[in-house]
Amino acid sequence: MGRLFLINLEGRMYTCKHCQTHLAVYSDLISKSFHCRTGKAYLFDKVVNVTTGEKEERMMMTGVHTVVDTFCVRCGSLVGWRYEIAHEKSQKYKEGRFILER
User: Fold this and answer.
1) What is the pLDDT of residues 54-94, one digit of tens each?
2) Neighbouring residues of 2: CB distance < 8 A, sequence distance ≥ 6
3) N- or C-end of the chain: fewer Cβ atoms within 10 A?
């Protein structure tokens, strides 16, 4: 395993709840009105210090989406997902954006 390089953020930020690795800054927050299996979730334009899993089709409250799960690079915890493809026209704004679970 190689050396782990982390991006450190400044200002108001969101971190991994397990290891406090920086994930996103407040200015990249788009919406707090999302929900996941475990409760509330936030939509972000950009996140850092994550790795992604395999693409999969997932049925969500707003329809079918192609998503990839995102994991903290330091501890490996599931922190959310990224929207790859939104099949509904009204949901296209989510493509390429990230959900971080609270």
Assistant:
1) 999 999 888 899 999 999 999 999 999 999 999 999 999 99
2) none
3) N
Task: Please check whether residue 46 is in contact with residue 23, taking contact to mean a CB–CB distance below 8 angstroms.
Answer: no
Alpha-carbon gap, residue 73 to 61, rounded angstroms: 28
CA-based nearest residue to 51, from 67, 82, 78, 72? 72
CB-CB contact of 78 with 65 (8 Å): no
Residue 33 identity (one-letter amino acid): S
pTM, entire model: 0.91
Pairing of strands 63-72, 29-36: unpaired
Instruction: Give the mean pLDDT of the chain.
Output: 93
